Amino acid sequence: MIPLSYYVWCAVALYLIGMYCLVSKRNMIKLVMGLEILVNAAHLNFIAFSAYRRAGFIDPFGHSIVIMSIVLTGCVTALALTIVTYAYKHYQTLDVRKLRRLKW
Amino acid sequence: MFTLPLDVLLVFMVASPVVGRVASKRGYRKVQGIYALLSLFAVAYFLYGLYNEVAEYNIVLIVGQLPFKPPLEACLQIDMFGVFMAFLYVIIGLFAIAYSIKFMECESGLSEYYTLVLGMIAGMTGIVFSGDFFTLFVFWELMCLTSYALVSFRKHKWEPIEAGFKYIIMSAAGSATILLSMSFLYGMTGTLNFAALSSRLTNPVSDGWLYMTLVLVIVGFGIKTAIVPFHTWLPDAHSAAPSPISAMLSGVMVQTGACALIRVLLLVFGSVQPAWQMTLVFLAVFTMFGGNFMALLQNDIKRLLAFSTIAHMGYILFGFAIVSHQGLTASLFHIMNHAIMKTLLFLCAGGFIYRTGTQDLRKLEGIRGAMPVTSILLAVGAVAIAAVPPLGGFWSEWMIVSAGIEAGMLLFSVLMVLNMLLSITYYLRLVYTINLKEPTSISEKATEAPVLLLIPVLILALLCIFIGIYPGPFVAWAQKAAEAILGM
Predict the structure, then answer these.
(1) C-alpha distance from A74 to closest chain B C-alpha (Å)
(2) What is the per-residue DSSP string for A1-18?
(3) Is the pTM value of this prediction over 0.95?
(4) N-terminal to C-terminal alpha carbon distance within chain B
(5) Which of A35, B101, B149, B246 is most buried per CB count within 10 Å?
(6) In this complex, which of A8, A39, A83 lies closest to B161 when CB atoms are compared?
(7) Is B107 within 8 Å of B354 (Cβ atoms)?
(8) What is the pLDDT of residues A6-53, one digit of tens each?
(9) What are phi and psi of A25, to 5 degrees?
(10) Chain A: residue nearest B152 by CA?
(11) Quick one: closest CA in A to B151, which residue?
(12) A59 touches chain B (CB under 8 A)
């Protein structure tokens, strides 16, 4: 059986990949995908922990959290993509660096 | 299902689009706003019942009907702190909705607007009522989702869309960070219930995972709380949203993040308190300086107010980071004062925007001649928030400073007093520009804001003065709420 720590480190790596994606990507849709990667890092963690809590027993609590969280993330993604379409209508581009009319 | 006020709020929220649709088909567009207003009155009534219950039993525990044993179940745990904050949300919501009835008159999609506002209030109420981390997260997402939609509500303009995109990316990353920290807590203890977490994490775990979780919690909640390195979404989002929404975002939503943060830190990370206490104090001082210095440079009235919110978040966080009964009381009292004063200021700014269509302070110079009542009410709010003695802001800021001195944080208290003095400059500049400068062509043509916009603002100003001259009962209430957070 694969040790738990592999999953945890994998989740941490996914989180870092998601953050890297948010920091470095220019395409707005890729940013939304970055958000999805971030959330999925946490989901992977929940599933791994719920499977390894006790030998031969899978804790349903972790799974119920993940299912709820998938729904919530779906809502956020839908809203983010809606905003992306409106931004495309205004700017005719998906490049996030063109959205620089606001100051800091 | 949940507790009565929250149930009523959610039911009204779900029914609101239906009412709005029917009403706007028959041509009664104002009905939607009045419906939302009445529903908030009903919630306030039920909340008063809950207040009596909590005053009698100290804590009301409501457990869900899932087939799990107690430490796993989702539950609500309502104490005086929750009721205190919920009253604040309902009151600020009342003023924002009463203002919206006239202010948002010409917008399309009004039934969605009121649904989203009620949803945001429901989300915030749920956050302060929740008794486990997962319930908190679900209500957190409800609050975040509705606020994303409200910030980019005027989708035909470029500014709300751009600000909304920035906001959604930063804030959703923060939510994901909170979820990751939750997963680590779940892995360490097997539960997310606050009471069970605090009893299972009593002996400080020596490995790094607990500290990593702590960092994730502070970053995750810190993004919503606008702690300075993560504050960049706030000025954009607050200046792009419609004025009543800016008032709600700035007056109560940002503070909800701070409340959730301090609740999680005290209940879950009580065993490593020295580690997060100093971090929080330093972050608070950075936040004060960042907000105040940036506010000095602004020419946009709503942006100036947004940066002043960041500075005030610094004060509130400093009060929380003292972790004494006095500090928490002071911070909660300041949250209340700040909510009232900031709502007053944003609604006054909304009055100017309604009549002139501009947020630029240089164009609003000397508008007092044209809009005397709004300008004077703005001056009342600005003087109160600049902590001039007889008004509300002074008492709470003074209480934070004295709590800091008493806890031995003399240096940081001095820095906070410096910040308070620094902030007076830009509030006075605001009052001076609006009231005393020579009027420009735009501000000469303006007329006084409609009565429906003036009534909520006037009541807020009176409330602000009333708290200033008679702070006793409010402080006593904040004290009880602070006792509830500390579990005394």
Answers:
(1) 11
(2) ---HHHHHHHHHHHHHHH
(3) no
(4) 28
(5) B246
(6) A83
(7) no
(8) 999 999 999 999 999 999 988 999 999 999 999 999 999 999 999 888
(9) -80, 150
(10) A83
(11) A83
(12) yes
